[in-house]
Amino acid sequence: MKTDFRQVTIRNATEDDVGQILAIDEMVFSTIWSPNFLRQQLRSEKCFHRVLDKSGKAIGHSGLMRLHDEGHITTMAIKPENQNSGLGSLMLADLCCSAIDLNLKGITLEVRVGNSKAQALYRKFGFAPAGVRPNYYSDTGEDALIMWLSDLSDQKVIEIVESTINRLDVQKV
Ligand SMILES: CC(C)(COP(=O)(O)OP(=O)(O)OC[C@H]1O[C@@H](n2cnc3c(N)ncnc32)[C@H](O)[C@@H]1OP(=O)(O)O)[C@@H](O)C(=O)NCCC(=O)NCCS
After folding, report:
1. 75 has which bridge partners?
2. Distance, first Cα to last Cα, the chain
3. Could you give the angle at which helices 155-167 and 87-101 cross, rounded to 10 degrees?
4. Mean pLDDT for each consecutive 10-residue tract of the chain (173 residues)?
5. The predicted structure's pLDDT at residue 2
6. What is the number of structural domains in the chain?
7. How far is CA 126 from the centre of its chain?
8. I need a surface site. Which of 11, 77, 130, 149 has the fewest CB within 10 A?
9. Model-wide pTM > 0.90
10. Is residue 144 in contact with ligand 1, taking CB distance under 6 Å?
11. 85 CA distance to ligand 1 centroid (A)?
């Protein structure tokens, strides 16, 4: 499935995207995955990795790992100059669509306790705090907040996913 928004496309990542994905991560994360770890994720049947592509260049990406009937968001990033224009919301709506298509019941993730912007994005889609993993991030020892979206079939979730895609005039092809 491809999602088109003007010149922006969300598509499955391939190994050709590794360099661009890691270049985005360098800009937004304090520690990044190794190229080999990312390649493993791209090859895994349990993982879905999406790229937000503008005119042939990656400007964002997201990852979802399937664990039985649950999804785990493994990463989500938008290039700094493209943030704050709704593209993070679009990427999350796209991941929720993938999870619904896969018949997953819910989605979970970990986010830095200090990352209030990402938490606000997840809350907007119905994710709720469900606990803390102390010292989760090895670079700073920061705690992780565990968040859960427990029912992907909830009408409110479907409405926010659809309204996000419709607000941005996205066409699915
Ligand atoms: C988190 C991230 C993906 C969001 O991408 P984005 O394109 O900026 O997101 P959007 O423009 O769709 O904004 C999403 C929501 O964030 C919230 N938000 C935006 N700016 C904010 C700010 N300064 N403070 C708090 N919340 C904020 C709002 O709720 C906004 O939704 P709204 O505009 O409908 O109210 C992006 O900031 C990013 O890549 N950050 C660095 C990597 C990261 O932290 N990833 C998450 C790891 S768990």
Report:
1. 63
2. 7
3. 130
4. 65 97 98 97 96 92 97 98 93 95 96 98 98 96 98 96 77 45
5. 53
6. 1
7. 14
8. 130
9. yes
10. no
11. 9
pLDDT at 99: 95
**By C-alpha distance, which of 111, 125, 122, 118 is closest to 154?**
125
H-helix or E-strand containing 111?
Answer: strand 106-112
Mean pLDDT, all residues of the chain: 92
Looking up residue 22, the CATH number of its domain turns out to be 3.40.630.30
Atom of ligand 1 nearest to the CA of 75: 47
- Give the nearest ligand 1 atom to 29 CA: 42
Structure tokens given for 73:
């968001």
Residue 143 to residue 136: CA distance in whole angstroms: 5
> Which residues constitute the domain of residue 40?
3-172
- Protein residue with least CA distance to atom 1, ligand 1: 118
- Give the other-Cβ count within 10 Å of 101's Cβ: 10
Taking alpha carbons only, the member of 65, 131, 159 closest to residue 104 is 65
Q: CA dist 118 to 15, 78, 89, 98, 144, Å?
A: 26, 11, 10, 20, 12
